[in-house]
Amino acid sequence: MSKVRDSVLTRGARGIGALVCLLLALLSAGWIIRDLAVAQHGADIWWSWLGEARRPREFTAWATSALDPLLVLGALGTAIAALRTAVAPAVAAGALLSVAAATLLLRTPLVWILGAGWLQGLDTDLTGWARLTALAQLALALVLTVVVAAGRQPGGRTGRHSGRFAHGLPEGASSAYGVVHAAAYGADPGPPGRPYKGPARTAAFLLGAAGLAVAGWEIHRRVRLGADGYRKGLLGDASVFRALLQPPAHWQSAALALLALGAAAAALRRASWARPAAMTAGALLCVHGALALTLAVRTGEFGRLAGLPAGTQLELGIAAGVAAAGLAALIVAARPGVPGLSGSADGVRAYGSAPGEARPPHAPPPPSTLPPGW
């Protein structure tokens, strides 16, 4: 006799998590609006996100990167998922933790970058507000982690191998021919929201391949640039600075590789939180690769691809593969997972109460000779 216990995210924890996600989205949205206000043309902010050297209208710096609209959309989507009771508790918790992990990884370097001496040429009030925003978002990410950890309570259901019903017979059982468990004894789909085997393996392969490709390219950059040159792109420097809330390029790539490999491991284990983790990593990888490809098209590199150095060709090939793998992983992870058991808490099902009613595949057939009075 065994029992299956699911941790349930309480309604209060879901509400607090949704509120924290909303605050995360508002902080990033405010800086996007600020960049639109200082841009000479509305499209300039888009080209700056791509990596072009567009300057704002005033003597100032851009504050946002392409990560910020992703953070806004991801936080808003997670807030909605946390409030929807139709979303399984494990999936809601995974979505909250995915947003928290991405925020922590991508905002951490801003703590020391926005306080560095080589930013003294910028408005100190502007850099101060940007640093305060980064610290606030890091604090909110930690709050999300605490909310998920503290807001879980033992609950759920008694396992289907207990040999008895936890809450009595299901409705209609008195007039039914028989009562069986909703799933066969040999089947063990797992907790609600868990990915099925096929999509889980596909997402694990896609994210694992993309994460290894990004990590491998970062190792190549480290060898090519040397320790000092790579450190500037990893920890920040005036020569690689682009926007106040944008992490250094090498740090960003390393963070995306870490998120992708972590989500791939979760998908391989078919963890109940693997789907939101895979969707988060897939979206970030897709945008990361797509931006590199769009910039290559913008600068004309694609038109002369055959004449480019082998290293540049390989970099564009990796960007295309990462974008495709991220998009495919996002689509696969968005598919519904294992549904929750319907009916009573023990997942039992009555059948045979109506003529011609379909019998569950794992239920025994009725006898050839019915009992008297049937």
From TrEMBL:
Keywords: Membrane, Transmembrane, Transmembrane helix. Residues 361-374 have a biased composition (Pro residues). This is Uncharacterized protein. The chain crosses the membrane at residues 63-83, 90-114, 134-151, 203-220, 249-268, 277-296, 316-334. Residues 349-374 are annotated as: Disordered. It comes from the Bacteria.
